[in-house]
Amino acid sequence: MDESSVRFIGNATTLIRHNGFTVLTDPNFMHRGQRAHLGYGITTRRLHDPAIDGSKLSPLDAVVLSHLHDDHWDRTARDGLERITT
């Protein structure tokens, strides 16, 4: 039997699990009130905390980024997610 789940974390951040494979989309773990830089001097303020803290994630198999603005790939995620290079 396939084990699957989808968990919305906030903004565009979603944790997808299927058959032991775990993917995180657009990691954004900034907290309420923090500002995300969108480019060309434009910022936005986070209105809600993420559903879970990025440091509480189990190991990931992949991270999917739609684009590199801070509201989809923030410094908290850049600094906190473990990187494995091959």
UniProtKB/TrEMBL annotation:
<dbReference type="Pfam" id="PF13483">
    <property type="entry name" value="Lactamase_B_3"/>
</dbReference>
<dbReference type="GO" id="GO:0005737">
    <property type="term" value="C:cytoplasm"/>
</dbReference>
<dbReference type="GO" id="GO:0070292">
    <property type="term" value="P:N-acylphosphatidylethanolamine metabolic process"/>
</dbReference>
<dbReference type="GO" id="GO:0070291">
    <property type="term" value="P:N-acylethanolamine metabolic process"/>
</dbReference>
<dbReference type="InterPro" id="IPR036866">
    <property type="entry name" value="RibonucZ/Hydroxyglut_hydro"/>
</dbReference>
<keyword id="KW-0378">Hydrolase</keyword>
<dbReference type="GO" id="GO:0070290">
    <property type="term" value="F:N-acylphosphatidylethanolamine-specific phospholipase D activity"/>
</dbReference>
<protein>
    <submittedName>
        <fullName>MBL fold metallo-hydrolase</fullName>
    </submittedName>
</protein>
